[in-house]
Design a protein that fits this description.
The protein is mostly helical. 69% of the residues lie in helices and 0% in strands.
Amino acid sequence: MSKNNLTQKFSNGTIITHWLTALLILLLFPMGKYMSDIEAAEKMGLIKVHVILGMLVFIMTIIRSWLFFKAPRPEDLKTGSKFNDKLAVWIHNAFYFLLFGISISGIGAMILGGYGSALIGGNPDLILSKGEIVPLKGHEIMSLIMMILLVMHVIGVVKHYILTKENTIKRIFW
């Protein structure tokens, strides 16, 4: 059993960007999965929403990365297991890299896949077929990895609460 100092909290900026990003990811992932199975003409409106929300996530990731280095933050949690401690840090850091990778591949898909031109011109015929858009495959793979890590993150929070009886989520709430 480990005891962590749960009075240490993340900064308000980190808390806001954490929860807004989490909410947007939970909207973007199923929206992207749904869009991948419909024709270009049918998804023009959803593409606009997906792009706007995705850009918000990108901007918040930039802000959160800056806050990571500039704002005070609590010490990493101790679980009593060196492996779990390292895994938690690895997962948290992987979120940042994945969010940047997903954002950049999304921008690449917009440009190289004709989505940007299609949205500007209102012509879905400008969108290339899914197989022709190289960054789209990376976008999908990284998004899937992100969801797996998100599940692991939630399991880790619950597991920590059950094993140590510490409500660690207080550190990322006001």
